[in-house]
Amino acid sequence: MSRAVSKATAVFAVIVSLLSVWLPMPAAAADPFTGYLMAHFTGESATGEQIYLAHSKDGLRWNDLNNGSPVLVSTVGTRGVRDPAIVRSPAGDRYWIIATDLRIAGGTSWSDAAERGSKSLVVWESRDLVNWSAPWLVNVAGAISGAGNAWAPEAIYNPATGDYVLYWATNTVVNGAYKHRIYYSRTRDFRSVTTPQVFIERSGRQGIIDTQIVEVPGSVGGYRYYRASADGHITIEGANSILGSWTNIGNLSHMGISNGTGGGNVVEGPMWAQFNGRNEWNLWLDQFATGRGYMPITSANLGSTGNFRTRSDYSTGTSRKRHGSILNITAAEESRVLARWGNSVPVNRIQSYNVQDRYVRHVNMDVRIDANVSPAQDAQFRLVPGLANNSGYVSFESVNYPGHFLRHYGYDFVLAPDDGSTVFRADATFRRVAGLADSSWTSFQSYNFPDRYIRHQNYLLRLDPITDATGRGDATFRVTN
């Protein structure tokens, strides 16, 4: 091959590589969907404003995952999250959960939250729907003059531009009207965002907080995209491009359903989900006014609100489901999710052998043994298969801080979020062996320092070699219900 041909070939390869990065990429053909995953919060309780997951096989009947406990807990911003949305990349190799940074249970009033609240969203990232990054904040509303908040985020991949349209509600004054409008930014990574623009505004003083867009294959009903918005009514609109012109199709007032303006069954948080394998959709609506949680209405043609029908053959599981989103999932995704959170792992306490009124607990992320632990969940753990070795080893996952595990650090113990590193997972893995002081009890041997065991000293948990009777007593525990 001549040098000229070789150089031309190299230049062509570079151009192809650049095009693959910057040109809009079509969504990858996915494996068939076999189930459904719902992300939601449960309400204004101590742990209700966190990320919960539920699973369904038929799109109508839901089972709570992780024994009804949160699967992700925010450690940033207000340390509470609401209105989670799950986003899958077009290639199906990356996922994000985005949520409102808000914790009403912490004592914040609704007026403070709306007028002086967080202008950021909380984001988690995963490559498998199971192992999630630490959360981070993305400031989406800071560039909006007079912005009071950033609520109810959603995002959808836009093949026209090769990035994501991230949209949310912000309360501010424009042209003398103080109300919530839907703003949007574009992003590729949910870290850097473009300058926010108004996406949806209703006339007069009518605000809008909740809206969600669904892409419809084959433009069933006449449009490629449909959105449902809580704007006094539940308004349905259609469009052929996400950032183009939207056509009002109608609302649900004829069904006795509204967002307050029309009375009847007052709902919010519209949440779309297509039935797997067929052109039929559920629009789930949160009956917040009566506290009954989500209900579905079904349509096979979204081009007319007259096609929607109510149904009674559904169940939302044990916990109350509040404003969230539903992701259709493949068999591989379903298998991973159920393997991680679908099994009923019992809640345990770890009792000290030689100070039997004391139990292992976390406090301010430190770990010790205490009596009369309050709140009780600080002393509750799930013994899950070892993060570094799941054969004969265990890890201790916190009940009220899911995704956080007991680990040794400098031979001291802390409660920390799994960062996915091999070091963390080794530090958080232990072999369950016969108690060193009493074989009917239990001791826990370190995975990566097998000459050391979990023990307490001055009531603080440590990882030490055990050389005498005192140490053997300190390193002996009972796993109790």
Automatic annotation (TrEMBL):
The keyword Signal applies. It comes from the Bacteria. Pfam families: AbfB. Residues 1-29 form the signal peptide. Keywords: Signal. The keyword Signal applies. This is Alpha-L-arabinofuranosidase B arabinose-binding domain-containing protein. It comes from Lentzea roselyniae.
